[in-house]
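stage 2 :: seqdesign
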């Protein structure tokens, strides 16, 4: 064999070794990829199995809650789901249309009465004149103290299974309704009007469930300007030109007749003319309400919920808290993820929205 043939043979052998080495490397890479794929498949399968188990367990719990032996537990669960935007479809899995009607067609309206403005004496003997003038007061006849003399009292509220805050504005002339335009957070609405604080307001159209809050629902008036008029009686909360809070079922014509210059719509009324609404059916959820004492002080109540600290309050809970604080008139407002309380540049409650902040709102009850 010549030298040239020997060189060619050696080159061929080297090429074969390199090709074998490359094939071995490719084989090792394929083996690693297969092992990684097996691990990923097992992890995915584990989480899928856990998800299915939780889903089945959840459906089982829901079945027990709805078809179980406790009517009270069933009612609480069904009403809680129906009052949410995201989960109101769940009862449809277990209940027929006829069964759902007993929950969705209940009448929660108060008797056919409206607020009597003569029951509110803004400059009556119970009014904290000193606090309105910026002077520090010991306490008022309701046992509340305006410690810094700014006319605003914020009190912690605790009940059976719920907690929240009551904000009392001693001078009702400071209160008004702010327009959220196409939908704004309460921070933005407050900044728009230069407001010191406030709470979320009325209902809004939300067919997609996205919570845009842009279009108010029901009878809505801002400072004498009609924002929305459905043409029929709505449960409203609003102020007349003398800063007296009206609650009850009103048409636009009723508002004009009673000099109501600003209002939003939500239901049910909780207290009218000192008479508590005894026809209240609800679940536990985050809630907001507004009321007024006989001395004119405006009561703004927000109860947190859907959290480890508590699921929230019922309509009856809100009514009872309002009564404890001396409300003559009070109305439930939008709740759930909308429930928010704002004061001096900060949200001071714990909203149940996914972000933990204010959602977009159509309007808000504010004060300067």
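stage 2 :: out
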């Amino acid at each position: 064999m010549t030298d040239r043939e020997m060189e060619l043979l050696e080159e061929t052998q080297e090429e074969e070794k390199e090709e074998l080495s490359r094939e071995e490397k490719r084989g090792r890479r394929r083996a690693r990829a297969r092992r990684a794929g097996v691990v990923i498949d097992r992890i995915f399968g584990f989480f899928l199995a856990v998800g299915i188990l939780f889903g089945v367990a959840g459906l089982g719990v829901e079945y027990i809650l709805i078809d179980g032996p406790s009517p009270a537990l069933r009612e609480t669960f069904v009403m809680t789901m129906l009052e949410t935007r995201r989960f109101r479809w769940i009862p449809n899995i277990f209940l027929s249309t006829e069964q759902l009607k007993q929950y969705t067609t209940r009448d929660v309206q108060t008797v056919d009465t409206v607020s009597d403005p003569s029951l509110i004496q803004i400059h009556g003997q119970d009014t904290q004149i000193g606090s309105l003038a910026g002077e520090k007061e010991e306490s008022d006849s309701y046992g509340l103290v305006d410690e810094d003399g700014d006319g605003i009292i914020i009190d912690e509220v605790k009940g059976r299974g719920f907690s929240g805050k009551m904000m009392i504005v001693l001078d009702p002339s400071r209160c008004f309704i702010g327009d959220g335009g196409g939908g704004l957070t309460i921070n933005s609405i407050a900044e728009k009007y230069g407001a010191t604080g406030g709470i979320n307001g009325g209902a809004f159209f939300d067919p997609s469930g996205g919570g845009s809050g842009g279009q108010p629902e029901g009878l809505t008036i801002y400072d004498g300007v009609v924002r929305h008029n459905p043409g029929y009686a709505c449960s409203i909360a609003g102020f007349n030109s003398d800063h007296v809070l009206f609650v009850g079922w009103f048409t636009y014509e009723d508002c004009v007749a009673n000099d109501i210059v600003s209002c939003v719509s939500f239901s049910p009324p909780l207290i009218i003319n000192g008479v508590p609404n005894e026809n209240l059916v609800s679940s536990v959820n985050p809630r907001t309400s507004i009321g007024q004492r006989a001395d004119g002080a405006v009561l703004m109540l927000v109860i947190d919920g859907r959290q480890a600290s508590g699921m929230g309050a019922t309509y009856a809970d809100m009514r009872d808290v309002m009564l404890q604080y001396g409300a003559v008139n009070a109305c439930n407002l939008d709740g759930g993820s909308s429930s928010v309380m704002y004061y001096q540049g900060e949200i001071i409650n714990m909203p149940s929205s996914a972000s933990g902040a204010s959602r977009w709102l159509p309007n808000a009850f504010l004060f300067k």
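stage 3 :: structure notes
- The helical segments are 3-67, 71-82, 91-94, 97-104, 129-132, 186-193, 252-257, 315-324.
- Residues 69-104 form one domain.
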